[in-house]
């Protein structure tokens, strides 16, 4: 594999992210579904990373290392060996979206494509959830008004449903679902609860089954490691949304 | 503190607490006195009006701004904020504290003036240099306390002039940040100049407003001085809101990945902006040390 970071404007915000957010992104890259370290990962054995051992900012200060590895996951492993550099995030995102059937404007901004990815993922998940699970999820996002008989998911435009939630709530929810689906051994229910927002925490339990079913639709064997890039792009979309909702000054 | 420690090349006049009279010490202890430019007045609610004492000063030398401010906070009689304000005022008037910042501003102005795309900016530059020139002149008038009786005729029109110029500058900052925010065809270099310029102005403005306040008090208009400080603080706060909104917008563009070649400029200034918005020094400069003074009975 490789971890050499390729300058990428879409990753510029990561240096402002929390230790926990970067660590969660890294875990998606480092560990497989069963919680075993991937053979290809190099983050944990990287000298600069090891030198930061014990620092409360070990992950934050290693964000380039983390996304450097993601950039290499985004390309074909054999091809990476030759070109020795990874793929830009935008390409990884577009490729991932195409693979899982997300409709998006190829000329759209990266964050707009991320919106489509989240919307697609949530819808897909939603279709596999029981009415009870949906109601529970809606309540967890303070969308209780949509529950019970008042709720008609199929007849409702996605923008109405998405727009009704507090800013970023669906992103947090989707990120937790993606972790539960693609790395259940690492992100246990307890870890999930601690990992995301309170909203996602309360709704975490409901998507464990449906999310696993969605994860199975993503191909396991391929030139590009979609089982890594799908949850990683969802996690990045969630992180971006989270920091967009905060004023820096 | 958002300012670096400038070496104080000359000694400054600071308050000599040992020579405060008993009436004043008592009033200060009970919160019944306000200080404006080295003069203690009876405060609103004290039941008395007028001057309590012209404060005694002594000469002192400090190695740095931080040292001087620390000494101000060691006071036993006067509230820390009031004492710090007295020292800040002395630093602005008597040392290179403000001059060092003005030099930085001048460099920026010179650089902008060379930019062929900035003809519309130059018009405003004249107004800003007018303001800074006015503040520099105010400092000259304030430097010698014994001239208080002679400077009034010069000070009155100067104060009116700098107040008007200050409002021009604050409007200009608003306009120029809007321009930088909404026009993508501004070159990276021009963008950098605009951002740095707005930032330096926001750094200097509290000192400028405080200087206006001191000069007004020096010429025997302490209530007007209070008004100038309060109004100046209010206007500065509005300008700061615009500046913070601008910087937040830049930050959000960076998070979205759409900031483009402006990222370098943004990242070169973001920590200075953080220091500016949390500056306790500016807050002190723009706050009345201890309420308002009492008015004479009609």
Question: What do you see in this structure?
Answer:
The complex is a heterodimer of chains A (249) and B (298). Chain A is mainly α and 249 residues long. Chain A is built from 13 helices and no strands. Chain A has helices at 19-30, 47-51, 63-73, 77-83, 89-99, 110-127, 131-140, 158-164, 169-182, 189-195, 198-203, 208-215, 226-244. The longest helix of chain A has 19 residues, at 226-244. Chain A is globular and about 50 Å long. The N and C termini of chain A lie far apart (39 Å). The model of chain A is unreliable at 193-203 (pLDDT under 50). With 298 residues, chain B is mostly helical. Chain B contains ten helices and five strands. In chain B, helix 7 (188-218) packs antiparallel against helix 8 (222-256) and helix 7 packs parallel to helix 9. Classes of the chains: A mainly alpha (249), B mainly alpha (298). The A-B interface holds A 9-13, 16, 109-111, 240, 243-244, 247-249 and B 244, 247-248, 251-252, 254-260, 263, 270, 273-274, 277.
Jot down its keywords.
heterodimer; A: 249 residues; mainly alpha; B: 298 residues; three-stranded antiparallel β-sheet; two-stranded antiparallel sheet; 10 helices; disordered N terminus
């Amino acid at each position: 594999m490789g971890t050499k970071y390729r300058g990428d404007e879409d990753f510029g915000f990561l240096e402002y992210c929390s230790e926990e957010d970067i660590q969660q992104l890294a875990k998606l890259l480092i560990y497989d579904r069963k919680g075993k370290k991937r053979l290809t990962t190099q983050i944990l054995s990287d000298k600069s990373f090891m030198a930061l051992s014990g620092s409360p900012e070990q992950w934050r200060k290693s964000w380039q290392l983390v996304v450097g590895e993601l950039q290499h996951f985004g390309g074909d492993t054999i091809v990476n060996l030759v070109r020795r550099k990874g793929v830009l995030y935008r390409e990884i995102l577009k490729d991932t979206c195409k693979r899982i059937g997300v409709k998006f404007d190829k000329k759209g901004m990266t964050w707009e494509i991320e919106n489509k990815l989240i919307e697609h993922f949530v819808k897909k998940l939603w279709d596999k959830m029981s009415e009870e699970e949906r109601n529970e999820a809606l309540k967890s996002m303070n969308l209780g008004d949509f529950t019970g008989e008042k709720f008609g998911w199929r007849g409702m435009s996605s923008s109405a449903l998405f727009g009704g939630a507090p800013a970023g709530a669906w992103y947090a929810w989707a990120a937790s679902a993606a972790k539960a689906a693609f790395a259940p051994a690492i992100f246990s229910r307890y870890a999930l609860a601690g990992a995301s927002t309170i909203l996602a925490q309360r709704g975490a339990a409901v998507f464990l089954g449906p999310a696993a079913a969605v994860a199975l639709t993503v191909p396991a064997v391929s030139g590009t490691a979609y089982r890594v890039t799908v949850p990683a792009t969802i996690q990045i979309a969630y992180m971006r949304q989270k920091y967009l909702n905060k004023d820096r000054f | 503190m958002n300012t670096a420690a400038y070496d104080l090349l000359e000694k400054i006049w600071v308050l000599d607490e040992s020579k405060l009279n008993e009436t004043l010490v008592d009033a200060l202890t009970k919160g019944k006195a306000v200080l404006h430019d080295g003069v203690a007045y009876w405060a609103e609610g004290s039941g008395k009006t007028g001057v309590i004492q012209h404060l005694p000063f002594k000469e002192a030398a400090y190695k740095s701004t931080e040292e001087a401010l620390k000494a101000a906070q060691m006071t036993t009689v006067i509230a820390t904020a009031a004492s710090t304000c007295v020292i800040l005022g002395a630093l602005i008037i008597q040392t290179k504290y403000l001059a060092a910042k003005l030099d930085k501003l001048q460099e920026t102005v010179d650089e902008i003036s060379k930019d062929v795309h900035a003809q519309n900016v130059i018009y405003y530059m004249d107004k800003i240099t007018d303001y800074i020139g006015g503040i520099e002149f105010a400092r000259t008038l304030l430097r010698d306390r014994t001239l208080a009786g002679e400077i009034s005729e010069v000070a009155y029109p100067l104060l009116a002039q700098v107040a008007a110029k200050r409002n021009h500058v604050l409007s200009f900052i608003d306009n120029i940040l809007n321009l930088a925010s909404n026009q993508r065809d501004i070159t990276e270099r021009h963008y950098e100049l605009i951002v740095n310029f707005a930032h330096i102005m926001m750094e200097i403005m509290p000192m400028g407003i405080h200087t206006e306040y001191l000069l007004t008090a020096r010429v025997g208009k302490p209530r007007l001085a209070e008004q100038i400080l309060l109004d100046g603080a209010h206007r500065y706060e509005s300008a700061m809101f615009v500046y913070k909104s601008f910087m937040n917008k830049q930050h959000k563009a960076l998070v979205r990945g759409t900031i483009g070649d402006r990222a370098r400029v943004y990242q070169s200034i973001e920590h200075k902006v953080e220091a500016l918005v949390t500056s306790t020094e500016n807050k002190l400069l723009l706050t009345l040390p201890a309420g308002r003074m009492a008015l004479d009975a009609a």
